[in-house]
């Protein structure tokens, strides 16, 4: 209930103010709450085990057991399937439907059209899944033709989870590198050798100059200006001026300690993830039990899932949440999905549906992603451990190697360029006249236009 309320508040913050609250928004709220619950599956399971280890004989912890956690995993798996296969497609079809031609217009006509389209889509997807299973496993495809619940739906969700895990493989390394720039934009950077007062004065003069040009009447200005480009430049300069004012007003502790400490924490978390993945690669080469697998009974309170005890379990929880945040940052920062980024009070219902589906795919693949990389030793519960590709050594091994390689390359590139950029800015090398400065462009344009008029 709490997750549902929080999800509703988040969606109402982003949806357009002109749109009313409809049934599609309630379905999106349910899907987003399921996505958040899928993110919390592994942290809740790991922390529950540590709590039972700490208080083995506590009367108040009797309700916390393996059966409860196992049931939670099954419910999240069920609701994830329900949202991906039925609720979100129905919400999209209902949003785009207008009713069949010749039918009486109204809500029920739109419901009938959405249901018919959903049935056709279900038949199409099941047909594709059956053809794929026949190509891969011809001996059991005919026998399991009518086995919808026990074979086709798990097979379908196995493919969806594989797509989600591959999407995490692409988004997470990029997101890990982007976390440094995103965190840096939210914090106040140290001044080093930069004179903030001088830079702020120059930026203020530039902003005033652009403001006067924008307020100038087009009939009175004898130079034809590109107003759209000038508006974008004005917004950029204004944002820079606000950031400089924040840096000037920041306290010495916030300016000199907060930013380096945050960067060191991010660097430590990223390096820790890479080291754990490298250790998991060595375990895969030496021990077959390191492969991710499913289990029926979690046996909570028997032993810690980390060799470092409660501290290691807490680190696992932090790393899992950090990977999820990084994957979301990388997803919305990639050129393919930048258009899905929601805007406050300016996101239509179709974009909200697409965002909920994307977040659900990423979050439902997070437990498999974390276990495949060896971030945690907590094996997958319920139907999460029934995926067909989990027992394939080559897929798991190549996945770990690709993640370690991509993350290391992104981290080295980000840190190298960041250090180089800060050194250039600190020593004032960016002010050297190596290229044409933006401040000289208006004067040169003015001179060229004046000479052309004189000629």
Summarize the structure.
The chain has helices at 2-14, 23-39, 41-54, 66-96, 107-136, 138-141, 148-186, 196-215, 227-249, 252-286, 309-333, 349-364, 366-373, 393-426, 441-454; strands at 294-295, 380-381. The protein is mainly α and 455 residues long. It has one domain (1-189, 254-327, 338-416).
Description of the molecule:
The chain crosses the membrane at residues 25-48, 68-94, 115-135, 155-176, 257-282, 302-332, 352-369, 389-412. Its main location: membrane. The structure is a single chain. By secondary structure, the protein is mainly alpha-helical. The protein has one domain (1-189, 254-327, 338-416). Helix content is 71%, strand content 1%. The protein is built from 15 helices and two strands. A two-stranded parallel sheet has the order 1-2.
How many whole angstroms does the radius of gyration measure? Answer: 28 Å
Fraction of residues in helices? over 70%
Identify the strand order in the major beta sheet.
Answer: 1-2
Strand-pairing-aware structural class: mainly alpha
Could you tell me the mean pLDDT? 78
Percent range for β-strand residues: under 5%
Query: Which consecutive residue ranges, at least 5 long each, have pLDDT under 50?
Result: 434-455
What tags apply to this protein structure?
15 helices; mainly alpha; two-stranded parallel sheet; disordered C terminus
Set out the fold topology.
Elements: H1 2-14, H2 23-39, H3 41-54, H4 66-96, H5 107-136, H6 138-141, H7 148-186, H8 196-215, H9 227-249, H10 252-286, E1 294-295, H11 309-333, H12 349-364, H13 366-373, E2 380-381, H14 393-426, H15 441-454
Parallel strand pairs: 1-2
Helix pairs in contact: 1-2, 2-4, 2-12, 3-11, 4-5, 4-12, 7-10, 7-11, 7-12, 7-14, 8-9, 10-14
């Amino acid at each position: 209930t709490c997750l549902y309320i929080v999800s509703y508040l988040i969606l109402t913050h982003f949806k357009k103010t002109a749109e009313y609250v409809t049934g599609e928004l309630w379905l999106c709220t349910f899907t987003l709450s399921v996505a958040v619950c899928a993110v919390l599956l592994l942290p809740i399971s790991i922390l529950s085990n540590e709590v039972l280890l700490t208080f083995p004989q506590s009367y108040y912890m009797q309700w916390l057991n393996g059966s409860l956690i196992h049931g939670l995993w099954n419910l999240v798996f069920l609701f994830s399937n329900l949202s991906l296969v039925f609720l979100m497609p129905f919400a999209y079809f209902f949003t785009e439907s207008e009713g069949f031609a010749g039918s009486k217009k109204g809500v029920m006509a739109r419901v009938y059209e959405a249901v018919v389209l959903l049935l056709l889509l279900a038949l199409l997807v099941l047909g594709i899944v059956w053809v794929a299973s026949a190509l891969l496993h011809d001996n059991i495809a005919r026998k399991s033709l009518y086995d919808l619940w026990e074979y086709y739906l798990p097979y379908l969700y196995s493919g969806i989870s594989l797509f989600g895990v591959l999407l995490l493989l692409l988004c997470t390394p990029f997101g890990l590198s982007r976390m440094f720039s995103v965190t840096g934009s939210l914090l106040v950077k140290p001044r080093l050798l930069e004179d903030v007062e001088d830079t702020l004065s120059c930026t203020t003069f530039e902003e005033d100059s652009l403001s006067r040009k924008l307020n100038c009447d087009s009939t009175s200005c004898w130079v034809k200006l590109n107003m759209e480009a000038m508006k974008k430049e004005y917004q950029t300069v204004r944002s820079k001026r606000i950031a400089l004012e924040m840096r000037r007003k920041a306290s010495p502790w916030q300016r000199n300690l907060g930013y380096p400490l945050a960067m060191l924490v991010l660097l430590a978390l990223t390096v820790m993830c890479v080291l754990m993945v490298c250790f998991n690669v060595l375990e895969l080469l030496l021990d077959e039990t390191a492969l991710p697998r499913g289990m029926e009974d979690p046996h909570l309170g028997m032993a810690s899932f980390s060799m470092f005890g409660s501290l290691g379990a807490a680190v696992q929880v932090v790393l899992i949440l950090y990977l999820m945040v990084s994957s979301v940052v990388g997803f919305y920062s990639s050129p393919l999905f930048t258009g899905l980024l929601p805007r406050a009070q300016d996101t239509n219902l179709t974009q909200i549906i697409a965002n909920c589906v994307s977040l659900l795919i990423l979050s439902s693949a997070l437990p498999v992603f974390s276990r495949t990389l060896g971030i945690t030793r907590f094996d997958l519960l319920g139907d999460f451990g029934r995926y067909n590709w989990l027992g394939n050594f080559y897929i798991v091994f190549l996945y770990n190697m690709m993640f370690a390689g991509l993350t290391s390359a992104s981290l080295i590139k980000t840190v190298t360029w960041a250090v180089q950029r800060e050194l250039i800015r600190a020593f004032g090398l960016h002010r050297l006249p190596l290229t044409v400065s933006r401040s000289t462009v208006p004067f040169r344009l003015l001179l060229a236009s004046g000479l052309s008029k004189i000629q």
